[in-house]
Amino acid sequence: MDDRRIGMEINKTNNLLRRSFAKTDFKRQVEKATGKNGWIIGYLAEHQGEDIFQKDIETTFSLRRSTVSSMVKLMEKKGYVRRESVEHDARLKKLVLTEKALDAHQLMLEEIKENEQKLRRNISEHELDVFFSVLEKIRNNIDEEE
Questions:
Q1: Owning domain of residue 97
Q2: 26, 46, 104, 141: most buried by Cβ count inside 10 Å?
């Protein structure tokens, strides 16, 4: 076995991505929104017209219930989402984006496009295919353990 550590490399890369994001115009313009809030806003924007619940966010992003609950409460407080009852079950509350969040999403799309271009620079399509395949295998390995 070689000395390279997958977890450490993923963590280092994640730190670099967060630092890079913190320097963007988007970060300054959207009231200290965190990266994960941005991903959730993006997910909800891409699924407008569908009933999306907290459980969907937990599953999609592999986050714990308590984590998502805290994030959604903060997003509500900041005016990015609201919870609405659904017709078929008053106990269920779907997550709905506000206009403020939709405006933020437009800024995010521009930022994501620029970021993806930067991240993909000098990487071939074949290398990207291998990268995404390996990441999926890593996630599956982790999921098997839990």
A1: 6-145
A2: 104
